[in-house]
Amino acid sequence: MLHELGIAAALGLRWLHWIAVAAALYGVLRTAAAIWQGRAWAGSDAKTRLRPRTQASLRWLVGGAWLALGCAVAWPVVYAASVSGPQPPGVWASMALAAQGWFPSWSELGQWHPAWVSSWRPDAGVPPGSRALARGEQAAAWLGAAYLAGAGVVFARQASWRLAAAMVVVACLLLAPGTPRPELVLAPATPHTFRQPPTDFDAGRILAGARHYQQLCASCHGAKGRGDGPLAARQPRWPSVLGPALFEHRHAGDLHWSVRQGLGNGTEGKAGASHAYGAALSSQEAWNVLDYLRAGAAGAELADHPGWRQALPAPDMALRCARLPQVQRLRDLRGQRVRIHAAHAGTPPVMPDPRLIDVVLRPGDPLHGPPGSDVGWADCGVPDAVSAAAWQAYAWVAGREAAQLDGAQFLVDRGGWLRAYQAPGDTLAWSAPDTMCEPGEIAPDQRTGEGLSDTLQRIDAQPVRPPLFRARS
Ligand code: HEC
């Protein structure tokens, strides 16, 4: 609710910005017309005075410009506050200070979720008490005071008040410390920074993304995204490794931007336009490719670390559930705990557990017959049409070859996040310390893992909260 109110307020400020610009232009035209007609001044001697009508025109001009400036700085701050929640004041201060390029364009005015129009965004890696942030706060406070005093200059009726206000403005501007360089307190942003993937991490789309990736990207970034494609050495810069570190430090929307519009936003000196694949990939297809890369990055993370450190949604897929006819997809089970089994037809069933919904994945071999026929012990199966894609997607997030996934198990929490993984052949049934997967580092001594109950309790007690802003490095 607060989120929607904030966005509505930001949009209101954006409209107000344009209204204020229009008012300032009106003032310019009126003043110019008066000068043109020789009617701006009351007399022609040295003691000339502006006519009241000219004074009013100038007030339109200055007032409009003053308001436009205020709105241009305020709306991105209000917008960022509503998409990101509370941040240290220094972050808002630096956002307000880095207000270059913040004048919204006409085409964006009608959009409900406006594009992010600053070149910068808050950087979670900057410690809250840092000196640069503190300086940004001071500078913003002084400049804000100057702006408020500017109201006196614009709106005061008496010349003496106006003069006093102007002196306060000058004093505030003189007292304000230099603003910190944006790169000290902020991270580069693109217009897509706060876009979220619309894909729900769908297994079918992950597979489609893999196909596009192999066609368009593998030549440089390598078949597995390790930056070792055959054309890599011929690039002016070495192609990035598209692994866990990338997803940790970049907003999904920024990656989407780099794939379709080109690398970076110009603040880092990257000449990235040649990296714009927007003509070859639709917006949806680019999200698919990123979902595929994210699945692969998760698998790579699992290979050298006992858990996924980044919040990872369980790949979504169509389901068929004998006892739950209203459930059509995995995401319909949000609010429940889910255990997903990758099991060939011959794999022995596990004990059903009343605390969980059991979903069985089949490798998609039509010889096994329709799901449900031999999975009576499970609550849900995956329809044949999508089971191959689902199996493959889960193999990727587990970092395994599809042929070696048989027997793996995954726990999905009530929010739909993948939380624990048990490798095939692990007979200790959730008691091995290695099976817990949680975003964030877990001290080794916390990894006690005493069976499924313990694991479930821990998962429920620590719900996943993906970071609103990522640390740049
Ligand atoms: C012609 C070679 C080439 C191709 C093809 C290519 N890339 Fe890149 N890519 C690069 C280079 C070079 C970089 C930049 C490395 C740097 O700036 O340090 C890069 C960087 C990236 C980044 C990192 C951006 C960031 O935020 O740092 C992503 C994501 C990416 N590419 C995705 C893709 C995807 C997806 C495709 C296929 C649609 C693709 N690339 C195709 C060469 C290529």
TrEMBL record:
* Secretion signal, residue range per the UniProt entry: none
Where are the bilayer-spanning segments? 15-36, 57-78, 139-156, 163-180
InterPro entries in alphabetical order? Cyt_c-like_dom, Cyt_c-like_dom_sf
Pfam families (UniProt xref): Cytochrome_CBB3
For molecular function, the Gene Ontology terms on record are:
electron transfer activity; heme binding; metal ion binding
Gene3D superfamilies assigned: Cytochrome c-like domain
Q: Which organism is it from?
A: plant metagenome
Q: Keywords for this entry?
A: Heme, Iron, Membrane, Metal-binding, Transmembrane, Transmembrane helix
Domain Cytochrome c stretches:
204-297
Q: What is the name attached to this protein's record?
A: Cytochrome c, mono- and diheme variants
Instruction: Return the annotated region ranges for Disordered.
Output: 441-473
Coiled coil ranges: none
